[in-house]
Specification:
Blueprint (H helix, E strand, L loop, with lengths): L1 H23 L17 E10 L3 E8 L5 E8 L5 E7 L5 E7 L3 E6 L11 E8 L6 E9 L6
Antiparallel strand pairs: 1-8, 2-7, 3-6, 3-8, 4-5, 4-7
Length: 148
């Protein structure tokens, strides 16, 4: 009788432990515990408009394991805009481009960084020099390039 009770207690503790660790994982749907759990491939998407200032800064964060990033920039002004994307902690500049008036451009992190970019905080700077900027940008982070 003792053997059955001990086995039941161990089995219950194991199930509780596994369930608790499953709930603690990122990107886990608690209702899916006990089923096949797959982490989300796409971490996040963001977008923003910018205008009426000569220099505009925006920020985004890349979570660990989601270092593949696509950014798209749209310049709605007839003047050029300088764009830079910098990893704040390391100072690494991933983008330094001029976007000509009334044009758009996309940047894929995997074009020059096959393993993706560093996780952490980024600053995007739009500079029109003596002119005000006017445009839109969006971004998306994923765990692998095929998610785009």
């Amino acid at each position: 009788m003792k053997k059955k009770i001990v086995s039941a207690v161990v089995a219950t503790a194991l199930v509780c432990s596994l369930s608790a660790s499953a709930f603690a994982q990122d990107n886990v749907n608690p209702s899916a515990v006990g089923r096949d759990i797959r982490p989300m491939a796409v971490d996040k998407e963001w977008n923003d408009n910018f205008k009426d200032q000569s220099t505009v800064t925006r920020f985004f964060t890349i979570n660990p394991d989601y270092g593949h990033v696509k950014l798209h920039f749209q310049n709605n002004s007839d003047k050029p805009v300088k764009i830079s994307v910098e990893h704040r902690a390391s100072g690494v500049v991933y983008v330094s481009e001029t976007l000509w008036g009334n044009s758009s451009w996309s940047w894929n992190s995997w074009d020059k960084n096959a393993d993706g970019v560093k996780s952490g905080d980024y600053v995007v700077t739009f500079s029109g020099g003596e002119n005000n900027v006017n445009g839109h940008y969006w971004g998306k982070a994923a765990s692998k390039t095929s998610d785009f």
